[in-house]
Amino acid sequence: MLTLEYHFNEPHTRTFYGYEPGDAFYEALIEAHRDLDEEQSALVNARLILLLANHIGDVGLLREAIRLAREDVVGG
Amino acid sequence: MLKTYQYPKFPFVRPAELDSPQTRHVPVIVVGAGPVGLSAAIDLAQRNIPVVLLDEDDTVSIGSRGVCYAKRALEILDRYGVGERVVQKGVSWNVGRTFFRDEEVFRFNLVPEPDLHRPGMVNLQQYYLEEYLIDRARELPNIDLRWKNAVIGVTPGEDAVTVRVETPAGAYALSCDWLIAADGARSPIRRMLGLDIEGKIFMDRFLIADVVMKADFPPERWFWFDPPFHPGQSVLLHRQADDVWRIDFQLGWDADPEEEKKPERVIPRIRAMLGDDREFELEWVSVYTFQCRRMKRFTHGRVLFVGDAAHQVSPFGARGANSGIQDVDNLGWKLELVMQGKAPSALLDSYSDERTYAADENIRNSTRSTDFITPKGNVSKTFRNAVLGLARHYPFARGLVNSGRLSVPSFYVDSPLNTPDTDAFAGRMVPGAPMDDAPVAAPAGGAPWLLPHFGQGFRLMIALDDAAALDAATAEGLAALGRGAVPVEPIVVAREGSAPGGIETLHDVKGRVRERYDLQPGTVYLIRPDQHVAARWRRFDPAAIEAALRRASGQRA
């Protein structure tokens, strides 16, 4: 099952408010694109997806994520 | 424009110093009678420290400005005697709705955590808060509040600080042991002392309008990303007291602030947002920019910076006034101990350490919100829009939608005043934590909440099943703590009974104190005067408490 509940966490950092790990991730994600041109940004995104996909490993889950990612984007 | 609020005008009183050749010396001068300066004066006056409070103006904040007061600030305002008025007049809201383009993406209901006295936040125009604080300051005979007294010079010294004050009747000098600069984002005192404040300016402008609507409109927070009536930008709608609604429009950097303020520009924007038929009147309009920056240190010799003078954040999350009030809460008791000669002036360094830590947290959170709300560059915008699209369907993405993370207190986990745990505890009341509130019964009188029983000096909270079972040795040890140079007042939290020797006893009627503080019979918490945890143990150990108290009051253990 693809996890669709909020699941961000930072195991070795004590946080007191639930939004902190997700916001920290999002900040790092945006920061990763700093000073890159569009082609470089697209490449970084592609590499990031590949790294995370390998970490997940389960191809069934990845197919499900790919399906959800395309939803709404390609008109139904 | 319509006026729902009558701005008071406070009289200028000719200061006696104008007629004296000598420079008068006072213990404390606070500069700036905004919410933070007024809070500082009240905090110190309640500690029996006389304060001269100088303000260049003669009325309260013009326009709604800071509109959101969060739980921690309300708890501190309770200590200053105005919390109840703010909560009564303010508007509570729980439902937030988030829109992306022409669709509602999701709505949330902030169901308040049960058994807390104060709500997560109330919305109230800043002028009401200032009015209530001024009323309170006037009740305190040791506050000398002087309107139309502008500080035009400051001379810091080893033993005293002298200020030059200009009034409509002439200028005079006044010297003090301690100068508290609460003179706002543009702090003239900071500038006169040539001190830096570093950070970044956001290249964006926002239009804020106070709008009076008589029509029925729910007390909800509405946030639009890229709405059809204001394409490419964000809009926020919030309800305040007196049927006044606050609307914030993101304008972008290229907008002309003077043009955008004109009613003929503002009214069509609001009409497009509300729909054609709704009646409204404009009460106040302003265009603002903002910065996220702070001073490297908040203490400079005998000059202590608080609030916007020391740090500024973007408005998303209401972390401005709320954090300034927390600055004062942190500073007051430390200054009192130093002035009484019971703590070295190094204790004030911990004010700077703890509140710069809090300022960094506030800047970090409000910057993250700003970057989400106003994405810079195509990649940022694509990710933002992807989050909003996914948020329609999937809860994880709702957690990433960041339209402002509301002001919450810092946990000073790295503070040098903390004594690290040596015993095992669950929960979040770690050393440095701000106390969680809980309902109690106070058989000897007093508020039916935990927090109002803390906040003046240090307290030692000791947990028991039956308060009457407190043994004689512990009772004597507790009594001795009350007689120390820095006194610690004991307080027993129990299921039943009264502690011997007249020790204040609270009953944990709903078990929430036990739950939130992970209490067991014999558990002891040392609590600072600002309601933060200093140390905790599973059993009463006078030597450990003594060492923790020395540490928490700035005298190295």
Describe the protein's topology:
The complex is a heterodimer of chains A (76) and B (557).
Chain A: H1 19-31, H2 38-56, H3 59-70
Chain B: E1 24-31, H1 35-46, E2 51-54, E3 68-70, H2 71-79, H3 83-89, E4 95-100, E5 103-109, E6 121-123, H4 126-139, E7 143-146, E8 150-156, E9 161-167, E10 170-181, H5 188-192, E11 198-201, E12 206-212, E13 221-225, E14 234-239, E15 244-250, H6 257-260, H7 263-274, E16 281-288, E17 291-294, E18 299-300, E19 303-305, E20 311-312, H8 321-339, H9 347-373, H10 378-391, H11 395-400, E21 458-466, H12 472-481, E22 488-496, E23 504-507, H13 512-517, E24 524-527, E25 533-537, H14 542-552
Parallel strand pairs in B: 1-2, 1-10, 2-7, 4-13, 10-19, 21-22, 22-23
Antiparallel strand pairs in B: 3-6, 4-5, 8-9, 9-10, 11-17, 12-15, 12-16, 13-14, 14-15, 17-20, 18-19, 21-24, 24-25
Helix pairs in contact in B: 1-4, 1-8, 2-3, 2-8, 8-9
Q: Care to describe what's here?
A:
The complex is a heterodimer of chains A (76) and B (557). Chain A has 76 residues and is an all-alpha fold. Chain A has a domain at 37-76. Helices cover 58% and strands 0% of the residues of chain A. Chain A has 3 helices and no strands. Chain A has helices at 19-31, 38-56, 59-70. The longest helix of chain A is centred in the middle third of the chain and has 19 residues, at 38-56. The mean pLDDT of chain A is 94. In chain B, the strands form 5 sheets. In chain B, strands 1, 2, 7, 8, 9, 10, 18 and 19 form an 8-stranded mixed sheet that branches. Chain B has a 7-stranded mixed sheet with strand order 5-4-13-14-15-12-16, with helices on both faces. Among the domains of chain B are: 16-90 and 120-195 and 293-358, FAD/NAD(P)-binding domain (3-Layer(bba) Sandwich), CATH 3.50.50; 411-557, Glutaredoxin. Chain B has helices at 35-46, 71-79, 83-89, 126-139, 188-192, 257-260, 263-274, 321-339, 347-373, 378-391, 395-400, 472-481, 512-517, 542-552; strands at 24-31, 51-54, 68-70, 95-100, 103-109, 121-123, 143-146, 150-156, 161-167, 170-181, 198-201, 206-212, 221-225, 234-239, 244-250, 281-288, 291-294, 299-300, 303-305, 311-312, 458-466, 488-496, 504-507, 524-527, 533-537. The N and C termini of chain B lie far apart (61 Å). At the A-B interface, helix 1 and helix 2 of A face helix 9, helix 10 and helix 11 of B.
